[in-house]
Write a structure and sequence with these properties.
The chain is of the alpha+beta class. It folds into three domains: 11-140, Serine Threonine Protein Phosphatase 5, Tetratricopeptide repeat (Alpha Horseshoe), CATH 1.25.40; 144-221, Carboxypeptidase-like, regulatory domain (Immunoglobulin-like); 248-346. It has helices spanning 11-19, 21-29, 32-42, 48-69, 73-86, 90-102, 106-119, 126-140, 167-170, 214-221, 248-288, 300-339, and strands at residues 144-150, 157-160, 163-164, 174-176, 179-186, 193-199, 204-209, 349-357, 362-370.
Length: 371
């Protein structure tokens, strides 16, 4: 498939990126079937299954292009995804990336646009390639970019938030939504490595690591020198490999604690506002009479309102205090989970929560020792 991204030079290219989505999509897709046919002529005649897959890709691509031109973006994305499933080509990828960018899916858009830029052939016009790169830059400005290199195992698998990244993407760049993520690197014969990440829009994080071979860990656990004789016996039975700690619960508990803190602050502000109203009512009452103890009938309504406002302020303050305590408890739980010794670990840690009782306040202390 081929598509003509025909644009003016210089500044006109940038204007086309911002204002010419529909026109670019039409031009990009106009010669899709022709390019696919030319590509087939350069190769040996494909078998029936390959030809069928190409025909289905062309059909779905044309359906997606029509939906795109009609402004039915969801339908266009679905048709482009079906075409992408049948055949991986740069024009399908770029059109799919355009639609996903319009649908506010910048991470998926960047993934497909990056493929399109990498897979395009040398016959592409420079103006069209510049537009494709501009679209990719627009998508990358909204997401975080990860470049992961595993020196000890270049073919290691990458998992982001539990989802395996395709090998083709892992070999180049991964695109993730801004925020917190968990990267796990896995390779048979090596220890898994888990690494929490916090990504920002437009930022690129370079990660270069070495995985530890499992055999070396097992031999150290059995008390055998790593650089010993090649005839060294296998590790003793019962020796267990230490599994990497999952940081997902810590992240979830931290988010829950932050949410609780925000709720507590909201109740505190509401309590302070009610308290200020009560003070204003009290000053108003005292300015007119002796107060609410022996208040005349003219002040009865104001005294009732004062009592209600004071009670509301107290209730809101109590709720805020409970929320702060709950938020602090969640923080303690997150710390305890992060620092608690794992079963089978050779190193030990101790974490205790003890009461802190004083004349003017009460609380808890987190006491720990780590090795």
């Amino acid at each position: 498939m081929d598509g003509g991204l025909c644009v003016d030079e210089g500044a006109a290219v940038r204007r086309a990126v911002r204002a010419g989505w529909l026109a670019m999509s039409l031009l990009l897709a106009s010669m899709a079937a022709a390019t696919s046919a030319r590509g087939d002529e350069k190769r040996a005649a494909p078998g029936p299954s390959a030809e069928s897959a190409r025909d289905r890709a062309v059909r779905d691509f044309e359906q997606g292009r029509r939906a795109h031109l009609e402004g039915r973006l969801e339908a266009a994305e679905l048709s482009y995804l079906r075409a992408w499933g049948w055949m991986k080509s740069y024009d399908i990828a770029v059109n799919l990336g355009q639609v996903q960018l319009q649908l506010n899916k910048p991470a998926s858009a960047a993934k497909h646009l990056a493929f399109g830029v990498r897979a395009v052939g040398p016959e592409i016009e420079p103006e069209r390639l510049e537009v494709m790169r501009a679209l990719l830059a627009e998508a990358k400005a909204q997401v975080g970019t990860l470049r992961v290199r595993v020196r000890s195992a270049p073919d290691a698998e990458l998992f982001v938030d539990g989802e395996r990244a395709p090998a083709e993407e892992a070999a180049h760049e991964l695109y993730v939504e801004p925020g917190q993520h968990l990267l796990v690197i896995r390779r048979a014969g090596y220890e898994d490595m888990a690494r929490p990440l916090v990504t920002a829009p437009g930022a690129t994080e370079e990660i270069t690591i070495d995985l530890k071979p499992k055999a070396a860990t097992e031999r150290r656990a059995a008390g055998v020198p790593v650089n010993g004789d090649a005839k060294t016996k296998a590790p003793a039975a019962g020796v267990r490999m230490e599994e990497p700690r999952s940081w997902v619960p810590v992240i979830a508990l931290g988010a829950a604690s932050a949410a609780g803190l925000g709720v507590g602050m909201g109740f505190t502000l509401a309590s302070n506002a009610a308290s200020a109203d009560a003070r204003a009512l009290r000053e108003d009452i005292l300015g007119v009479g002796p107060g609410c103890l022996d208040a005349p009938s003219a002040l009865a309504d104001r005294c009732t309102q004062l009592a209600r406002t004071t009670a509301r302020s107290d209730r809101l303050g109590d709720v805020a205090g409970v929320t702060y305590i709950a938020s602090g408890t969640v923080v303690l739980a997150a710390l305890a989970f992060a620092l608690w010794p794992r079963s089978g670990s050779a190193q030990g840690s101790a974490v205790r929560v003890v009461p802190d009782l004083r004349a003017d306040t009460t609380g808890v202390l987190l006491v720990g020792a780590w090795q």
